[in-house]
Amino acid sequence: MSVKISTRVSSVQFAGGNVKLTLVTDAESVSRLTRADLSELQGKVVTADLMPESIEVVTYLDEEGKPTVTYTCDKGVWAEHKQEQTNLIDEEQLTPKSDMVAIADIDKFILSANYLEYNGDINPKEVVQGLVNGIEMAQLAEEQDVSQSYLEDELLKARKHFAPYTLASLAK
After folding, report:
1. How confident is the model at residue 11 (pLDDT cuts 50, 70, 90)?
2. pLDDT, position 122
3. How much is the pLDDT for 3?
4. Were both Cys, which of 21, 58, 84, 168 would link to 71 (CB 3.0–4.6 Å)?
C-alpha cells in the first residue's frame, strides 16, 4: 500500500538511540483509508519522505528598515539587487525578517516566469512541469540519469533559490 498525505510534525522525542516522530494529519487526508488499513500500519516499518511544504526566506533590513537585497521584474526578467552600502554595514546592525513561502507558490513562480537564471545542476522549470503533469519523481530522475534523492535535493536547492523572488512577486 502506498499513500501520500500531508502531515504536520507534532513532536520529536529522542530516547535510547531512537527517535519518536509524531505526525498529525487531518481526517480528510486519510479518508480513503479504512481504520483497518491504518491499524495494519501500526508497528510496521514504513518509508516516509519528509519534505517541507514551505521555505523560510530571511531578509536582512538595514538601520532604516530597508531590505539589503530586493528583487524586481522588468519585462518578465527577474533580477536581484544588493544595496551598495551593505558591505560596509556590520552584521550586528542588520535586522533579520523571516517570511514563509509555500512550495506550491514557488512552483507556480518557476512555471510562470518568462526567464529564470539558475546555475544549478537541473532545469527546475522542466522538473516542476513534469511533476505538475503527474510524472513521478522517480521517473523524472531516471530520465535525467540521476538518483531520485539527488533530483529531490537539487529541486529543493532551486526552490530555496527562487523563494525570495516568489515572495517579491506575491507582494506585487
Report:
1. confident
2. 93
3. 67
4. 168
How many helices and strands (H and E) does the chain possess?
Answer: 5, 6
42-56 per-residue burial string, b: 16 or more CB within 10 A, e: under 16: eeeeeeeeeeeeebe
* CA nearest to 77, candidates 113, 126, 128, 37: 113
Q: Rounded to whole angstroms, how far apart are CA atoms 57 and 69?
A: 12
Q: What is the grid cell recorded at 49?
A: 519522505
Question: What's the rounded Cα separation, in Å, for the pair 108 and 110?
Answer: 5
Would you state the cell numbers that stand for residue 168, as one nine-digit string?
517579491
Q: What is the DSSP string of 90-157?
A: -GGG-EEEEEEEEHHHHHHHHHH-SB----SSS-HHHHHHHHHTT--HHHHHHHTTS-HHHHHHHHHH
Beta bridge partners of 22: 11
Cell of 89: 554595514
